[in-house]
Amino acid sequence: MNSIAVISAEESVIDADAALEDLYAGHYARLVRLAVLLLRDQALAEDVVQDSFVAVHQRWRRIDQGSAPAYLARTVVNRSRSALRHRSVVARNRPEPAPDVAPADAPVIAAERRGEVLNALADLPTRQREVLVLRYYLDQSEREIATTLGISQGAVKSHASRGAASLRQTLSQELS
Amino acid sequence: MTDPTNDDLRQLFHETAAGIRPEGSYEEIRSRTRKVDPMARRWFLPAMAAAAVMALVVGGAFYLALDEGSKSGPAVTPDPVSTEILYAGVTAGAKAGGPENHSLFVEKHEVPALEAGKADPVAAANLAISGTPDDADYASLWPAGVSVTSAEASGTGEDRAIVVRLSGPFQERPASMSDRDQMLAINALVRTVAVAAGEPDTGVRFENAVGNGETVLGEDTLGITYFGQGDDDLATRAPVQITNLTDGQTVPPGTLTVKGVAAAFEANVGWALYVGGDAVVQSGFATAAECCVLAPYSFELKDLEPGTYTLLVHDTDESGEGLAVNQDSKEIVVQ
Question: Is B75 a member of any domain?
Fold first, then answer.
C-alpha cells in the first residue's frame, strides 16, 4: 500500500512540474502585467505572481486542472488584493513610491503615460480597479469576472460603469 | 464581450501593459517548489508509515507500562493562559459607515495552554467563534455550528503563516450578514488566532478541511493571507473601550480606577455612573493620551457605596453634525 501511495505522489509531482512549465510559458508575463495594473509596483507584482505559481503547484492535485489558467488568474487577483491590504497596514500614511515599471530605454513620454494610467488605477476603489483590469486587459466577460471575483454580474456592471467614468475623468488627456 | 464604446480604454490598458517588462524566471519558481517536493515526498510517506508503526509500538509499550502500576504522578497540565478574544459590539453608525454599526471589542479570557505560558490558538479561536463574552453587549458574528479544528504556524520570514482549518457551515455567508459584519467576523478570528499563537504580526490563511470550496463566510479566501488588525486600526476596533473591568464585576467600596482606550475628538472621553437605570450619581471627563487614535485613558470613581451601578464611557459629538456617540458600558457591583 505504501509503494502505491509513493508512486501516486511521484506521478502527481511530475504532472505538476510539467504543468507548471506550460503555465509559466503561456501565462507568466501576462499575469505579471495584470498584477502591475492592480498593484502599481512591479517587484511586488512579480512576487505575487511567483507565489501564485508556487501555490498552484502545491495544490495541483486538488484543483480543476482543466481550468488552471483561470484558477491562476483568480489567485493572482486575490493575492494582489491581500498584498494591498497588508501594505496598507504596514505602510499607512507613507507616501507611495513612484511606479517603477518603465524600462531604461523606454521613451519618456510613454513612461509618463504609463505612470498616469497606473496612478489613476491605484486611486480607484479595489473592486472597480479589479473589474476594469479583468475586463479591459484580460478581456474577460462579465460572467467570467463575476466568477473570478466571486461577485454578482450586476455588481460587475456597477463597478465597471463607475470605474470607467472615474478613469475617463482622470485620464481625459490620455483618452483624447 | 462587445463593448465598442470603451475600446479606447481597452487600447490604453493594453498599451500600458505592453510597456511592462516582466522579470523572474521559471527556474526561480521551480527552486521554490523543490523546497517542498519532490524529494521530500519520496521518503515522506514510507517514513510516515514507519513512524506510525513505531508510535504504535512505543505508545503501546508506554501504555502497558502505565497500566502496570507506574502511576506515580499525574501528567502536569500547564496553567491556563489569558489571551485576547475579539467580539463584536454596537458602536455609532455614522462613524463606522452608515447603518452597519458593529466594531470589535477585546476581552481577556483564559484558555488551555499548549505548554507553560503558551495559549492554545484553537481554543482561543473557538471562544471567538462560539464562546460567550463576559459583556452581554458583545457577541460573535459567526453562524452557529462553525468551529476551528486546527491552527498551525509554518514557514519562515515572509512565507510564515498560520493555517486555520474550519468545520461546520463556514463557507456560506448568512443572508442577514452585512459586508462589514463579514469583514469583522474574519478579522476577529484572524486577530484572536494570531495573538493566541504569540505571533500577532503573522498572517493567517484558511484551508478547508473538506470539499473543494475556497470560501469563508462567502469571501473568496483562495490565496489570501489575512493580517489581524491591531489596536491602531479604527476601521475594525471600537472607538471607546473599557479594558480593566468585566461586565458584572464585583469591586469593594471606595475608589475604583477605570482604564480603557479611546479614539476621541480632542481626546475627550466622557463618563457617567448610573444607578437604577437612569439616575446619574457621578460623571466627568477624562483625557486620552492622544487624540484621534486608540490611546489609553483612566479616571477614578470615588466614594463608591454598596450597590449595583452601570458605568458608561463615551466619546463626544463635537462636530455639530449630529454624529452618533460611541460608547462602552459595564455593570459594576459594589459590595
Answer: no
Alpha helices (H) along chain A: 2-39, 42-58, 68-90, 108-122, 126-136, 142-149, 153-170, 172-175
Reference B107, options B126, B130, B132; nearest CA is B132
Q: How confident is the model at residue B243 (pLDDT cuts 50, 70, 90)?
A: very high
Largest CA distance in chain A: 68
Asked if A54 and B32 come within 8 Å (Cβ–Cβ), the reply is yes
- Residue B57: CB partners within 8 Å, gap ≥ 6? none
Residue B111 lies in a domain: yes
Residue A8 and residue A95 in one domain = yes
Q: Which residue has the higher pLDDT, B69 or B332?
A: B332
Number of domains in chain A: 2
Same domain, B42 and B140: no
Chain B positions touching A133 (Cβ under 8 A) are 13
pLDDT given at position A15: 78
Amino acid at A169: Q
The 10 Å Cβ neighbour count of residue B95 is 18
Domain that includes residue A176, residue range? 106-176
Q: What residues pair up with B165 in beta bridges, in sequence order?
A: B150
Tell me which H or E stretch contains B90. strand B81-90
CATH number of the domain to which A120 belongs: 1.10.10.10
Q: Is the separation of the CB atoms in B262 and B238 below 8 Å?
A: no
Answer whether A114 touches B (CB < 8 Å): yes
CA–CA separation, A70 and A26 (whole Å): 12
Q: Give CA–CA dist A71/B29, Å, rounded.
A: 17
Give me B162's grid cell: 498560520
List chain A residues with CB under 8 Å of B40: none
- In the block, cell 483625557 appears at B287
Query: Rounded distance, CA B303 to CA A106, Å?
Result: 76
A94 lies within 8 A of chain B by CB? no
- The enclosing H or E element of B7 equals helix B7-18
Last residue of a domain, one of A50, A73, A101: A101
Give me the domain span that covers residue B313.
Answer: 240-334
Global model pTM greater than 0.90: no
Cβ–Cβ < 8 Å for B146, B169 = yes
Q: Domain end: A80, A101, A122, which one?
A: A101
Report, in angstroms and rounded to the nearest whole number, the Rg of chain A calculated over CA atoms: 19
Q: Regarding predicted confidence, which is higher, A160 or A84?
A: A160
Q: Does A82 contact B6 at a Cβ distance shorter than 8 Å?
A: no
Sign of the torsion formed by the C-alpha atoms of B83, B89, B95 and B97: positive
In a domain, B74, yes or no: no
How many domains, chain B?
3
Whether residue A140 is predicted with pLDDT greater than 50 in this model: the reply is yes
